[in-house]
Each structure stands twice: as C-alpha cells, then as structure tokens.
Amino acid sequence: xxxxxxxxxxxxKLETRRRxxxxxxxxxxPVAEGFQKAIEDLKKRYPNAKHRPVGPSGQxxxxxxxxxxxxxxxxxxxxxxxxxxxxxxxxxxxNEVIPGDIAVYYLNGDVEHSGQVVKRESYFIWIxxxxxxxxxxxxxxxxxxxxx
Amino acid sequence: xxxxxLQDGEMRxxxxxxxxxxxxxxxxxxxxxxxxxxxxxxxxxxxxxHFEGNELLNWLMESxxxxxxxxxxxxxxxxxxxAIASKLDNQFLIRAGDIKPAYEDDWxxxxxxxxxxxxxxxxxxxFSLSPGAVASNSAIHSATVFN
Lengths: 148, 147
What we know:
The structure holds two protein chains of two kinds. By secondary structure, chain A is of the alpha+beta class. Chain A has helices at residues 35-45, 62-68, 77-86, and strands spanning 9-10, 26-27, 50-52, 102-107, 110-121, 124-130, 136-140. Chain A is built from three helices and seven strands. In chain A, the strands form two sheets. Chain A has a five-stranded antiparallel beta sheet with strand order 3-7-6-5-4. In chain A, strands 1-2 form a two-stranded antiparallel sheet. Chain A starts with 8 loop residues before the first strand and ends in an 8-residue tail after the last strand. The relative contact order of chain A is 0.20. In chain B, helix 1 crosses helix 5, helix 4 runs antiparallel to helix 5 and helix 5 runs parallel beside helix 7. The longest helix of chain B is centred in the middle third of the chain and has 15 residues, at 71-85. At the A-B interface, helix 1, strand 4 and strand 5 of A face helix 1, helix 2, helix 5 and strand 1 of B. Strand 4 of chain A pairs antiparallel with strand 1 (141-146) of chain B.
C-alpha cells in the first residue's frame, strides 16, 4: 500500500467544541533565509523576555500555539473569534488571571496575537507566545511587538 | 529683473529603500491584517508611494516571479502591493490583480482582497500644531485575558 501523499501546505482537521472546522493550514516548507537574524534582533530588542530555542518555523503561529498545540497556522482573525465563542471562553478581570488562561491581543477589534498565561506576579502577567514565523518567547503582556 | 534659484528634488532610487523594518514586521506577523497595518506606516512603503504606479507594478511583477529565498524577498511583494494601494488612482491596484505569484502563497490573495475592499485614495497632509495643542490617537489598544 502506498503511503498517503503529504502536501507541503495543507489544512489539518481542527474543530471547535461545536464541531465546526477551524480554517488553518500547515506549511511544511522551510522558512526563508533571514529569520534567524530577525530572531537575534528580537532578542536584543526584548532583553527581559525568555526566548525559547524553537523556530524559526512557518508550521504554526501564535494562534496555532494557543489553540492548536503548535500543530498548525491559524491565519484569519475571524477564526479566533469563532474559537472564543464556540469553545466558550469568557473574559476575566486582571486580578482573576491564573496560569493556563489565554491572552488575546486586539487592535481596533481585530485579533492580532494570542498567547498563554504562564505566570502572574501582582499586576505583571507573563505570556508564552509565538512571534510570527520567528520563535517562542515568554514575555510580559505588554513587552512584545504586538500592541497591548 | 526678478529671478528664482531652483534646486531639483533628490532623485529616488529603489536601491536606496530600506526594507529592514518591513522585514521585521513580516517576520513577526501572525496574521495578514497585522502585516497590512504595520506596512501602511512603514518608511519603505511611504517612500515607494512616491514612485510611478507603473514602476511599482513592474517591481511587483518581478518580486513574485520566483519563490522568495530570503526575508527581504518575502516581504517585497506586500510592500509594493501596499504602496500601489496608497496611490490616488486605483487603476494600478486593479491592474495589480492580474499579477499572481508563480509559487503558492496564501497571504498574497488575502492581502490583495483586503486592500481592494478597503481601498481609499489617500493624501498626506502635514499640519503645524500650535503650542499646547493636543493630538489624540483614536486607536483602541487592548489585551484581553480569557479562561
């Protein structure tokens, strides 16, 4: 029996709790040259963050890390709103935050970034997130390229 | 006899455009909408928007001819596309619709669609504010935590 054909770019079966497909694609192509330098630049720009030695990778993005266990790239902000709705997430206050919660970054109503809360120290919330095709970082909620 | 002394404007050359900020925006972009927002205020896009529309179309066509092998090659098509979308005359953006990457790229058609749907001819006006005047930013920034 021949093994199944694996395309360089293809979606995974990924559903919300209400069994609706989440639009996604897994990109198995190698990333272009220059991302490693971008990672080194980001490390200098954000010295207080912990930069995890993973990436660069185009296989998953921040939303793929937050909502799909690093397996795929979720591109469309509308899909994130669908997940938040259909997985029944609810918004909480800053003093209720505990590790394991998720942070979603909005700008003018558009979802631009997401991550997982890994630590809270008083008003300081530490987030684990993936920065585009670059790497993963553990950073203070407001200490990243994404407006917060 | 009255006379004027004139000096020509500095000649703009593609080689002088600095794409480094655009590269970083592309490197950290999780969504095409983030990339569009960042590039709209990128110095490279602002500089390129002064070039002729036909020149931009030629550079766009050239940039999608081969699969990008570097970060700067990867971001250039979007930089040109957004510079084209900033033109007052939307014929250039319409013509850009005929230009397709010779390789698979999910973001390109998505970004082109967003740009055509949100096309607004723009001009840049510089205002001098009097001392004490306050400029406000209407953008709403927020990070929301869920559990």
